[in-house]
Amino acid sequence: GDSVTQMEGPVTLSEEAFLTINCTYTATGYPSLFWYVQYPGEGLQLLLKATKADDKGSNKGFEATYRKETTSFHLEKGSVQVSDSAVYFCALRAGGGNKLTFGTGTQLKVEL
Amino acid sequence: NAGVTQTPKFRVLKTGQSMTLLCAQDMNHEYMYWYRQDPGMGLRLIHYSVGEGTTAKGEVPDGYNVSRLKKQNFLLGLESAAPSQTSVYFCASRPDRDGQETQYFGPGTRLLVL
């Protein structure tokens, strides 16, 4: 079946550091890929998405590129801020499907 | 515009007790969902609804019932709580016109079953 694997957290970084959160997937067909963010005390929000191979999703300084050859969708940001502290979820929707499959989430802590 | 709200935020139950979790949305969304989140696992879909008066099973429906009597509310019931139902429960909603990924999530309900 479909699955999403994320790196375990927590990831602790200093402000202005470079961020990478790894995400790999297993799916039939050509899935759409997503990153969600959950700030403390709030629900998940869609951060960015990519619907086909080599697409790059971007939002709020975050980027992720859909890599079909490595079945990956790693989240990156060049310079993190304290306000980026949150839990990040990678997810997929299999081609033509109506179900979201989530990863386990990676907690990011950014310190001054 | 409150978005998606969940009641209660936290609850402790004893094994065998029953309770209802309430999800409310004020965005006139057609679709509503209930997920659970457990340590080391992603969100898993329990039940969902594609409109008022409809419900359908998701990935892990056993031990739960749901109702969607009003478009804005989606209730999740536990008739006889078990320790395995200790989890964080998330509700979500989305409009009919948008794709599955555009779900608006509530802040979650933490449930502890002793």
Task: Please describe the topology of this protein.
The complex is a heterodimer of chains A (112) and B (114).
Chain A: E1 3-6, E2 11-14, E3 19-21, E4 23-26, E5 32-38, E6 44-50, E7 56-59, E8 62-65, E9 75-77, E10 86-93, E11 100-102, E12 106-111
Chain B: E1 4-7, E2 10-13, E3 19-25, E4 31-37, E5 43-49, E6 56-57, E7 65-67, E8 73-78, E9 87-94, E10 104-105, E11 109-113
Parallel strand pairs in B: 2-11
Antiparallel strand pairs in B: 1-3, 3-8, 4-5, 4-9, 5-6, 7-8, 9-10, 9-11
Task: State the gist of this model.
The complex is a heterodimer of chains A (112) and B (114). Chain A has strands at 3-6, 11-14, 19-21, 23-26, 32-38, 44-50, 56-59, 62-65, 75-77, 86-93, 100-102, 106-111.
- Total helices of chain A: the number is 0
**Which residues of chain A form runs of ≥5 with pLDDT under 50?**
none
Please state the CA-atom Rg of chain A, rounded to the nearest Å: 13 Å
Considering DSSP H and I runs of 4 or more, what fraction of the residues of chain B is helical?
under 10%
The helix-strand sequence of chain B is EEEEEEEEEEE
Mean pLDDT of chain B: 93
- Main beta sheet of chain B: strand number and arrangement? 7 strands, mixed
Biggest sheet record of chain A: 6 strands, mixed
Share in β-strands of chain B: over 45%
Distance between the termini of chain A: 41 Å
Calculate the terminal CA-CA distance of chain B, rounded to whole Å.
Answer: 36 Å
The beta-strand count of chain A equals 12
- How many helices of chain B does DSSP assign? 0
